[in-house]
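User: Here's a chain of 118 residues. Predict its fold as tokens.
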Amino acid sequence: MTVDASVSVTSNFGQASQMALAGILRGETLAAERLLALALPRTPLRDGLLRETGAVIPAADPQEGAAVTFDTPYAVRLHEHPEYNFNEPGTGGKYLENPAMENSSELGKIIATEAGRG
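Assistant: Prediction complete.
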């Protein structure tokens, strides 16, 4: 003998999920903006060009998220070689990666807060 049950719910889940998605995208973008603010003081200065190219690409898809970019021909080289002699105190290689790792909890909370707001 078996017992079967069927449950159906009529609700506004579609709208709720769209609101949650919008919150996630907003949160990812806000977290990226915060990361850029944390990274800029640690970005090698020299002539200031590298810092000036720092930008946030807003999140359009939660799977891809938002992005922080630095766009000069030498941005990656400076980021990936912390052994270089950087003249400015507090600056150096891994200028984006280190602030992201050190502040991952804060950045995650920004995303979670906005996702909860919907």
